[in-house]
Amino acid sequence: MSALLGVDAVTKVFGGVRAVDGCSLEVAEGSVTALVGPNGSGKTTLFNIITGYLGADGGRVTFAGRDVTGRDPGRLYRDGLSRTFQQARVFPQLSVLENLVVAAGYGWTRLFTPRVGRADRERADELLDEFRLAPVADLLAAELSYGQRKLLEFAAVLMSSPRLVLLDEPTAGVNPVMIETMERHIRSRNAAGITFLIVEHDMTFVMRLCDPVIVLDAGRQIFSGRPDEVQNNPLVLDAYLGG
Q1: How confident is the model at residue 111, as a pLDDT?
Q2: Residue 237's domain spans which residues?
């Protein structure tokens, strides 16, 4: 598999602390890649740099063979690179359906006008069915459970037909049934051609779903390989156990 995403010697410094320290990694097209590491290893900072929410102090990011370093998150979304957040970001005072329509690129005033395309309405309905959110389509997002908001955010990023989705802690704070649901949707979308890069602390989930697993420590990659290899790698054990 060829690299869809490339991170080359990316650095980010906060007040003298190198949160990301010359980090380089690749995400192969068609993969479900995990990005793991101990707290403070730079995972979220790197996610924010890749998706344009934070500028890098050095290095570059490439997506689909193009340099996208520092590109606006909205443009990246339109280009096929989208993300979720650890705390699901939805519009609480919009309905579930309206959240999906807005995700398709429409402004607030166009939600219920003929200018909202039929194809986008149909796609929203399909996603509501797929994610079993159709029964709550008319509820405000604020009325959903935490797990349902996570699913809604995931469905919303799919409105753009992305090539690469970055998931930030998709299982955090949700029950085991919702974890299984999230895993099923990731597998289904990956089989349909979407590449995933997942930051996750639930290592059972990672070992079951992701290949390869990339491990960060102190802002740089220390390991990349199969799930079965990561569990016994001395560098990884040292990073997590502080040996």
Answers
A1: 45
A2: 3-88+162-241
